[in-house]
């Protein structure tokens, strides 16, 4: 499909600067622009590409000041990154959606499947499971007995949802993720470990997206809960009885130990780790590779390092760490001088 700059500006509330009849039919990064493509500029590091890009249209922020002539037609918006996200969502929604149950799929007789559902080959829908309208289940995905999947969900290939778990509406789970495997519960005895049965479930609320090969464990009792709007990256581990608050986002390889409670609107960098049975307050920003071992204060607190600490303290410590080799040399020299002074007495 093809859209003009004028049409795009109307869709996203932008202002055209240049030829409003310029047409595009694809997207491209600004540094890889080509004729007929629309790009965007939100990071100042890429500003120099604006003057050389071959893209026909570029989305830019309202406050951008041009330093030289630009070949492309510009659409000025309040926030270029948000605007391109909206366009990409519109583009994705225009793609045809698959429907129908493949003859190679296995759907239990007691399962309830809504309208306009797609179930791919070798997918399995267990006894008493429910699949809502418009949901797409790709090949080799397993929906366990008694699982409830809401409307307009997207479960990609090889996703496994264990028995009894509950998924809301508009949920996306990428390939290889496992929802509802047993929590890691074992009681030591004189001969080894006794397994503690994990009889709870996982509840995932509306508008959640979970990346590839992420695991969310079922609770010992009660529920492990992912609140609405949460976005989890690839390769994340959420242990039993955890709760992640609304609209929290986590980058890849984050790990949560059991019974950790993460607040709403938190941002967590890659490879951060959380000790068990702690509470992380709303709107906490946790840096990459951070180790959070105790409750946090809240009020937009930022944390860095392991164990987690205030950024100022962390950077002071890192500055001191870089000086340690020189400090060691000074210490050795002082020791030598002290030993010589002792010999003279």
Structural key phrases:
345 residues, alpha/beta, 10-stranded parallel beta sheet, 3 helices, 39 strands
Tell me what you see in this structure.
The protein has 345 residues and is an alpha/beta fold. Helix content is 16%, strand content 28%. The strands form 6 sheets. The protein has an 11-stranded parallel β-sheet with strand order 8-11-14-17-20-25-28-31-34-37-39, with no helix packed on it. A 10-stranded parallel β-sheet has the order 9-12-15-18-21-26-29-32-35-38, with no helix packed on it. The protein has a 9-stranded parallel β-sheet with strand order 10-13-16-19-24-27-30-33-36, with no helix packed on it. The longest helix is centred in the last third of the chain and has 34 residues, at 311-344. The chain is flat, with a radius of gyration of 27 Å. The mean pLDDT is 95.
